[in-house]
């Protein structure tokens, strides 16, 4: 069993390149700290730029550990704030899903 964290965002028109540049930088910081980088994809259907950032973690404890650690990485909070400038207000949503169930 593992866990998937999804970050759902609807971007303002024309903001995709700047948002992605920031995400690449954040992923580089994560990798340098031994954290899980987030994949970025867009649904096949939707208006504007519907973005999904997604990462999987082997346990809930590991997700929590990485979440706390990421908060201490220099510049991550600044990147998060900059990315939110490109998000349509009220469209931000996060999901944490458990993948698989024990039989």
Q: Mind describing the biggest β-sheet?
A: 4 strands, antiparallel
| Strand adjacency order, main sheet | 2-3-1-4
The multimeric state of the shown protein is single chain
Helices, by number, come to 3
CATH topology: Alpha-Beta Plaits
The string of secondary-structure elements, in order, is EHEEHHE
Percent strand: 25-35%
Output the CATH class name. Answer: Alpha Beta
Judging by the overall fold, what is the CATH architecture? 2-Layer Sandwich
Number of strands: 4
Query: Unreliable segments (pLDDT under 50, ≥5 consecutive)?
Result: none
Overall domain count? 1
Overall, the morphology is globular
Radius of gyration: 14 Å
Salient structural properties:
103 residues, alpha+beta, Alpha-Beta Plaits, four-stranded antiparallel sheet, 37% helix
General description of the model:
- By secondary structure, the chain is an alpha+beta fold.
- It has a single domain (2-98), classed as Alpha-Beta Plaits.
- The protein is built from three helices and four strands.
- It has helices at 16-32, 60-71, 76-84, and strands spanning 2-11, 39-41, 49-57, 93-99.
- The chain has a four-stranded antiparallel beta sheet.
- Helix 1 (16-32) packs antiparallel against helix 3 (76-84).
- It is globular.
């Amino acid at each position: 069993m593992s866990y998937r964290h999804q970050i759902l965002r609807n971007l303002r028109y024309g903001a995709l390149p700047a948002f992605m540049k920031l995400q690449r930088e954040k992923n580089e910081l994560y990798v340098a700290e031994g954290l899980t980088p987030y994949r970025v994809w867009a649904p096949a259907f939707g208006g504007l730029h519907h973005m999904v950032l997604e990462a999987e973690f082997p346990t809930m404890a590991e997700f929590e550990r990485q979440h706390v650690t990421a908060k201490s990485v220099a510049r991550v909070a600044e990147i998060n704030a900059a990315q939110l400038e490109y998000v349509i207000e009220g469209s931000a949503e996060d999901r944490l899903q458990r993948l698989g169930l024990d039989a």
